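SECTION: protein entry
WANTED: fold as tokens:
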Amino acid sequence: MDDDMRTVRRQKGERKSGDRRTNDDDKRTVKRQKGERKSDERRTNDDDRRTVRRQEGERKNGDSKTNDDDKRTENKEEIERKLEDTRRQVQKEILEKINGLEHQLHRTSIADSGDCPTSPATPLQHSSLMHTERSVHKMLKPPTYDGQSSWSMYRRQFEAAAKANGWTPQEMATSLVISLRGQALEILQSIPEEQQNDYDRIVGALEIRYGHKYLRQVYQSQIKSRQQRSNESLQEYEADIERLIH
């Protein structure tokens, strides 16, 4: 009987000991799980903060790049506006100068025989009368030139008119300046003002820009890109190619 009681007490003790170990294991497991959750939460929070900081940095970099692009665009537009204003101002000054030259040429071309003096002319008056008499015959006005047609052909026309009118080299320079239009007129920007009454100087600048050497490069480029159009006959196509070659 005593043995049975001791056995029962021992078994109860073992069960209690086992229960305590089980409870201790459960507590340790719960503590470990809590620690792991807290560690995971901290890592998650750290990752979230790093992500937020990275996104904020990217946004700031993006804003900075956008601001730089905006500034570059504004600077480019400002430069373009200044260049356009300068071009307009130069063109305005050239047109004003041309108008003045036209007015001057018009005045020198007017001859009023009723105003001629009846008294004997002095050498200076005689020279003035000869100039006035010669001005009466300045009737031929050369066409305008904008750089779109052949410069050599235009120069022949212009010099033929100048010869018929009896123009001096300075008058030829004045008339040529007045006749320029469009891109050809902008050639004057490359010539100093004091040389714009020099006929050979103006012709030289136009020759460089629109002469045979320049046109040959243009025609070679056109030949390379020239294709027969849908409404163009073979004869027309060959004639145009022949024109560009020669």
Remarks:
- The mean pLDDT is 76.
- The helical segments are 2-109, 123-135, 151-165, 169-179, 182-185, 199-210, 212-225, 234-245.
